[in-house]
Design goal:
The chain has about 140 residues and is α+β, with helices and mostly antiparallel strands. Helix content is about 20%, strand content about 50%. Strands 3-4-5-6-7-8-9-10 form an eight-stranded antiparallel β-barrel. A two-stranded antiparallel sheet has the order 1-2. Strand 8 and strand 9 form a beta hairpin. The longest helix has 29 residues.
Amino acid sequence: MKEAARTTRAMLLVILALLALFSVVFLTLRTPVGVHSSATTTGQSQTTLVSGEHMITAVFDCDGGRSITAVFVNGPHSKVQLTLSDGRQITLPQTISGSGARYANADESFVFWNKGNTAFITENGTTTYSGCAFSVMMGAHGRD
């Protein structure tokens, strides 16, 4: 019985992941080529895309009522632009990861990890945003 429940849960997660992927592809294909920038949910920062870059905005709900808005910029110089629920904004380059996507500042004192539909942040070796789960994708844009 437990095995059947695990299998069903695994299948649902795969279906959700495929739906998310389909949404990203669909929105990317529907985005006009002339799109050069997009604002985060706060409307305070903008990202100018260069040729070959694609941007996806996602929101993660975390433990303690916290949240992370992440603007993933994928391309020759992949990075993430974070807006934290405490008001801070930080841009981090993508770094080497054995699993998932890892973004960190130069001295690795601030690290954002994203694997599947989960994420967390460590600051100076302490986890400050934990239990973060993907809640909504806000859009995808690209420039070819």
